[in-house]
Write a structure and sequence with these properties.
Residues 123-378 form the PPM-type phosphatase domain. This protein has eight helices and 16 strands. By secondary structure, the protein is of the alpha+beta class. It has helices at 27-37, 103-113, 165-184, 189-209, 259-267, 323-326, 331-342, 348-364, and strands at residues 68-70, 75-77, 116-121, 124-129, 138-146, 149-161, 216-225, 228-234, 238-243, 246-249, 272-275, 278-281, 291-292, 305-310, 315-321, 371-377. The longest helix has 21 residues, at 189-209. The strands form four sheets. It has a six-stranded antiparallel β-sheet with strand order 3-4-16-15-9-10. Strands 5, 6, 7, 8, 13 and 14 form a six-stranded antiparallel β-sheet that branches.
């Protein structure tokens, strides 16, 4: 259909009437909107044109609806009459990148997959189970046949906090640092061993702190040497001895419920605060001694308490465990459970069953922490005179 033309001077084409609305509107907008709603009016004349503004529309191209057109102040979208005055642009399509986990997350995921494991070695057995934390923070270390002597060994149970870094470092280095220190110390045997244990803890702590990592770890360890037990601990892991079926604790937990620990921290310029019934250093950590804990090192020391005990024929076994066990199971209870499971067998198969039973007993009683239980048979280390 051709577009009609008009001549302003022709009497057959009088000037168009004024626009029906008082508000001025662009002629192009008017034409497009009318055309969209009534196709029969495609030949309509453009409004707001006077005799002084002749215009040839022969080659005019109508812009389809929904195209951009020039408005008063900016480019707007033409829309049909009756449509909403509010116009929203469709948001751009969201393109998600392809999922590709990095190596750090892969390592963490492997740690998270560890729920429970058991170890059965010569003269010892162990059971570990993860609590509610995403990562198992308990660890253990064993060194047998030290210096080629089957009567010398080192055992450790480690409970990390604030991550697993400190626990892994302690397991790898504490025993080695103690043995290395022992080789360099001369003098009376008893004092040399105690000095070596203290030096080993101090060096392990200093080397880990130099890495700038903020996590920490509690550790209980036993050095068996020359028919004697040298038991050391920092934190709340504990060691219990069974002597003719009677439980004998060989360590004390370093918690703020101990008055001497609170006094030491306060004298060094720190403070202790009780939160939800638990005393904490600087209102944060529930143990007063540990390896690591860079941000609390001024008050949380790594100096161990050491207990020396000669092995005698009535010494049967040791139970070494993290606080996940001892918070729910009493010392004598644990010894009785081991005696009941082992009976007269006294072998590692029965010992493993006992470790599992103790571990499950803790969880049945509401424990939500990681649990590690190590059982050590002492008869192989006894030296007869």
């Amino acid at each position: 259909m051709a577009i009609s033309l008009y001549s302003p001077s022709s009497p057959a084409f009088p000037p168009p009437p004024p626009p029906p609305t008082p508000t001025p509107i662009s002629w192009l907008t008017h034409m497009l909107l009318r055309t969209h709603n009534n196709p029969s009016q495609q030949n309509a004349l453009p409004p707001n044109k006077t005799h002084e503004q002749p215009q040839d529309y022969t080659n005019t191209t109508l812009i389809p609806p929904k195209m951009f057109m020039e408005g008063a102040d900016s480019l707007t979208m033409a829309k049909p009459l009756g449509a909403s005055n509010k116009f929203r642009k469709r948001p751009a399509k969201l393109v998600l990148p392809e999922y590709c986990p990095g190596p750090e997350f892969s390592k963490l995921r492997k740690k998270m997959e560890i729920q429970e494991f058991h170890v059965q070695g010569r003269d010892y057995c162990l059971a570990t189970k993860k609590g509610r934390r995403e990562t198992l923070e308990d660890a253990y270390g064993v060194m047998l046949d030290i210096c080629g002597d089957s009567k010398q060994a080192f055992f450790a149970v480690v409970d990390g906090h604030g991550g697993r870094d400190a626990a892994d470092y302690v397991v790898e280095h504490l025993g080695k640092n103690i043995i290395n220190a022992l080789e360099k110390i001369a003098g009376e045997e008893e004092k040399a061993i105690e000095s070596a244990i203290r030096r080993g803890h101090k060096r392990t702590d200093e080397e880990f702190l130099s890495q700038g990592v903020g996590s920490g770890a509690c550790a209980a360890s036993v050095l068996v040497k020359n028919g004697e037990l040298h038991v050391a601990n920092v934190g709340d892991c504990r060691v219990v001895l069974s002597r003719n079926g009677v439980a004998t604790p060989l360590t004390k937990q370093h918690r703020l419920c101990r008055e001497e620990e609170r006094v030491r921290i306060e004298k060094s310029g720190g403070f202790v605060e009780c939160k939800n019934g638990v005393w904490r250093v600087q209102g944060s950590l529930a143990v007063s001694r540990a390896i690591g804990d860079l941000h609390l090192k001024e008050w949380v020391i790594s100096e161990p308490e050491i207990h020396r005990l000669p092995l005698t024929p009535d010494c049967e076994f040791l139970i070494m465990a993290s606080d996940g066990l001892w918070d729910k199971v009493k010392d004598q209870e644990a010894v009785d459970e081991v005696m009941r499971e082992m009976g007269d067998e006294k072998n590692n198969d029965e010992g493993m069953k006992a470790c599992k039973m103790l571990m499950e007993m803790s969880f049945r009683r509401g424990n939500m922490d990681d649990v590690t239980v190590m059982l050590i048979q002492l008869q192989p280390f006894f030296i007869s005179i």
